[in-house]
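ok new one. same drill as before - structure tokens go in, u give me an amino acid for every spot. 857 of them this time. try not to just spam alanines like last time pls lmao
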């Protein structure tokens, strides 16, 4: 396979005006007839027309109604080429047979639990029919679906239902028309036995929109939260961006077999059931929050992705970054903390490894950070102006990240310096800050230096534009009002309209740069990078006592949490060092004090406290070591957790409600439970067991189960059996049960996971089950990275089995190997051997090949 680069982008030779599709759905095969109105980009030009197509069997081609002979076209495994098409406009009619029943890749048209559904992003449409399967081909679609009426009573596609009726032999049909031009990746079709929860939303201009969430009949009661989330998202997009929904119908369909989380197909979103179905008994607070976020995310794509789409797949972050940014919906500190943790645990490690790549093409976590920086620099109003201009300029177009940048810049007449580098440079910038106070001059100086470590293919990096939000605390812990700052020899006012501000955004753009605050009458403690204003690694000369001070006082809640994390990271690294030198482990008492202070501060939000007393993840700590030592990090983290285990019982028997105060209470209680669970002492085990038995919702029941599952033994086995017995009828809960066991740190757990592969509830063809069991296992540092290589061997075997069924899922799993060079020599050898074994296998998919070869490179 040949790698494709952004610079290779070429405009298409042909555009498509309209696309008429007809699906004759059947049990043996499905017949797809497509009629495309083709016209050349350059009038009069007639280069060959090259269509993408994969796993299709071609039945016939007609051009302007005339059958093409075999010598008029060329067919290979990936393309259908018409050598000499006529000049001007013409109609192309192609009939193909496909077999959705046998499609285990879950790309294109496939069957999931008896129903037909589609997944076309990024390049699945070519598995449905021959097409220029690229996002800059935007066309108007009409879709006719014919199917057996009793097996597939519901027939859905994009847009509005234009017509429906009965046919002979117990069959029926429906015709859908989408009035908006769209790229093929947004096409969708669903056919099956489904029921809907119906509701309506009245847009602010008074348009009445029917909302329908489709699932198998039994699951309809579990869609209330998804419906609530959808309406909240529709309202938010109107309130914040003035963006209204543009059709009279919006459908969401939940399917149990889905490679990703969800897909934003125009007016027919298709979701992984996991992100739609919830009830207090079966879903946790985390599930509820994920549903709210992802329903919002997909809905927001209606404008940021669908109305304005991507020119090519290198622009993916244009739609994903922007949409993910919106799905924050108003953002609170705890959400920010969760996002930053994700960035640190997944994105930064990737940035530092062989899979490092720029925001463009496809980093959407970091893409959202880039969008957030625009907002930090422009303020809410300036950002809104930029959004308005973006839609004014580009509605109905397929565009690039530069177009978005230009809209933000032009709407605000802004100086964005070298900001565009965020899109093209891979790696995480490291920013070092040195501070100094001059008591005579009453100035406080911040000296910045920035550096981006080299990444594969990019050895030299330019300094980039980093917005650093800063505040200064006085000795009482209060914010000092900021008036002026010297920068580049000029004095700038940081207050606006004589109103003093306590946080200012410094524009750090050079390799080395100094900012000096004036009128500072005592040595302040700086609060740097407030709200995590840029996705960087920050290192500063702040002392431990400065950090404890920030932990206790910072008005920026995010930085309060951050100070605790910086302290905890230092503490953990020091203890790892002690352990490696065979020194006894002793916990610094200041740390315990700081920790207690947070716990006892009743003015703090409980959900925030729960985050603040949670230690950084093992991945994050390993990432900071020269050679990652999973065993030592695990031992140290467990040691600290045992030391900190304190009783904090917040139990209450009130009815489950998904609102802030209730979930905050549960969050804090569950963190405490997890701490208790690591004590192993009988009394505490009994307490956790009692929690498990009396819990009235999944959030609390599962937290108790997880706490119990930390310790091997009969109690653990019994409770796990009990849980399965209770929930075996609910596949989403069973997946949690798989994941919990898979992630376990119990020594030798690979054998348990192997056994679970043949558990009747497991199925390698279902992505969610794979993510729970195999993905979960790879997330356990001690067992996946077991010294004897058993974890690596296990993953190697599974990847090869999976690749034959579903290359996308297999490639996700193989990426667990990508950072093998971070470990000691023995582990390196063992992991490398598995990668080589995968690479030497015949018939490997492109997806797995790409990840495995890059990992070895
Ligand atoms: N475009 C899809 C989404 O936004 C990809 N997972 O969810
Ligand atoms: Zn998305």
């Amino acid at each position: 396979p040949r790698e494709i680069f952004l610079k290779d982008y070429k405009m298409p030779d042909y555009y498509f005006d309209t696309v008429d599709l007809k699906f004759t759905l059947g049990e043996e095969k499905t017949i797809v007839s497509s009629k495309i109105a083709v016209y050349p980009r350059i009038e009069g030009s007639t280069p060959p027309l090259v269509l993408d197509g994969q796993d299709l069997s071609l039945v016939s081609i007609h051009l302007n109604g005339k059958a093409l002979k075999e010598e008029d076209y060329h067919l290979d495994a990936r393309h259908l080429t018409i050598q000499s098409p006529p000049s001007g406009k013409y109609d192309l009619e192609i009939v193909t047979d496909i077999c959705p029943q046998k499609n285990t890749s879950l790309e294109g048209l496939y069957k999931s639990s008896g129903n037909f559904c589609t997944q076309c992003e990024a390049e699945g449409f070519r598995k449905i029919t021959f097409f220029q399967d690229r996002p800059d081909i935007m066309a108007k679609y009409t879709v006719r679906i014919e199917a057996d009426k009793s097996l597939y009573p519901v027939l859905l596609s994009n847009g509005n239902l234009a017509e429906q009726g009965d046919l002979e032999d117990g069959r029926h049909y429906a015709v859908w028309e989408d009035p908006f031009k769209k790229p093929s990746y947004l096409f969708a079709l669903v056919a099956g036995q489904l029921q809907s929860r119906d509701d309506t939303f009245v847009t602010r201009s008074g348009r009445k929109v029917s909302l329908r969430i489709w699932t198998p009949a039994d699951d309809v009661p579990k869609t209330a939260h998804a419906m609530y989330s959808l309406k909240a998202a529709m309202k938010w997009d109107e309130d914040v961006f003035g963006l209204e929904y543009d059709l009279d119908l919006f459908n969401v369909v939940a399917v149990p077999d889905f490679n990703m989380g969800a897909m934003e197909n125009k007016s027919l979103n298709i979701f992984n059931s996991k992100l739609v179905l919830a009830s207090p008994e079966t879903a946790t607070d985390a599930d509820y929050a994920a549903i709210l976020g992802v329903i919002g995310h997909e809905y927001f794509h209606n404008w940021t992705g669908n109305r304005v789409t991507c020119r090519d797949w290198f622009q993916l972050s244009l739609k994903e970054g922007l949409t993910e940014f919106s799905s924050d919906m108003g953002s609170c500190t705890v959400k920010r903390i969760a996002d930053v943790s994700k960035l640190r645990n997944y994105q930064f490690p990737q940035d530092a490894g062989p899979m490092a790549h720029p925001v463009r093409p496809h980093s959407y976590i970091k893409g959202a950070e880039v969008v957030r920086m625009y907002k930090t620099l422009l303020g809410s109003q300036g950002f809104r102006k930029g959004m308005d201009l973006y839609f004014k300029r580009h509605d109905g177009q397929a565009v690039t990240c530069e177009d978005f940048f230009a809209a933000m810049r032009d709407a605000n007449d802004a100086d964005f310096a070298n900001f565009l580098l965020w899109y093209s440079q891979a790696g995480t910038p490291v920013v070092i800050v040195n501070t100094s106070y001059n008591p005579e001059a009453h100035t406080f100086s911040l000296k910045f230096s920035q550096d981006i470590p080299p990444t594969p293919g990019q050895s030299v990096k330019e300094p980039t534009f980093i917005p650093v939000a800063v505040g200064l605390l006085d000795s009482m812990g209060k914010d000092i009002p900021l008036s002026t700052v010297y920068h580049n020899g000029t004095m700038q006012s940081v207050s606006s309209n004589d109103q003093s501000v306590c946080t200012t955004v410094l524009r750090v753009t050079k390799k080395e740069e100094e900012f000096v605050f004036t009128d500072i009458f005592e040595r302040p403690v700086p609060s740097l990078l407030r709200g995590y204003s840029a996705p960087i690694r920050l290192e500063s000369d702040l002392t431990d006592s400065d950090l404890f001070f920030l932990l206790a006082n910072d008005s920026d809640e995010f930085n309060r949490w951050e100070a605790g994390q910086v302290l905890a990271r230092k503490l953990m690294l020091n203890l790892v060092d002690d352990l490696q030198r065979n020194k006894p482990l002793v916990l610094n008492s200041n740390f315990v004090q700081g920790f207690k202070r947070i716990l006892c501060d009743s003015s703090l939000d409980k959900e925030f406290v729960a985050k603040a007393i949670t230690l950084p993840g093992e991945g994050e700590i390993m990432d900071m070591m020269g050679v990652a030592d999973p065993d030592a990090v695990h031992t140290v983290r467990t040691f600290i957790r045992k030391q900190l285990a304190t009783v904090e019982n917040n139990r209450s028997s009130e009815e489950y409600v998904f609102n802030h105060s209730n979930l905050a209470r549960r969050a804090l209680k569950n963190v405490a439970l997890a701490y208790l669970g690591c004590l192993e002492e009988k009394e505490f085990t009994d307490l956790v067991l009692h929690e498990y038995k009396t819990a009235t919702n999944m959030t609390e029941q599962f937290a108790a189960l997880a706490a119990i599952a930390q310790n091997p033994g009969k109690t653990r086995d019994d409770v796990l059996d009990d849980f399965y017995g209770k929930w075996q009828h609910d596949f989403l809960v069973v997946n949690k049960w798989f994941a919990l066991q898979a992630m376990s740190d119990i020594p030798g757990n690979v054998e348990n996971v192997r056994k679970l592969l043949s558990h009747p509830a497991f199925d390698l063809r279902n992505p969610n089950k794979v993510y729970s069991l195999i993905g979960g296992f790879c997330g356990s540092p001690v067992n996946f990275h077991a010294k004897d290589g058993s974890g690596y061997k296990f993953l190697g075997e599974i990847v090869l089995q999976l690749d034959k069924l579903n290359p996308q899922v297999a490639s996700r799993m193989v990426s667990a190997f990508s950072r093998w060079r971070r470990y000691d020599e023995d582990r390196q050898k063992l992991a490398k051997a598995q990668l080589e074994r995968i690479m030497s296998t015949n018939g490997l998919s492109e997806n797995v090949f790409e990840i495995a070869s890059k990992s070895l490179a």
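The longest strand covers residues 14-24. and btw The radius of gyration is 28 Å.
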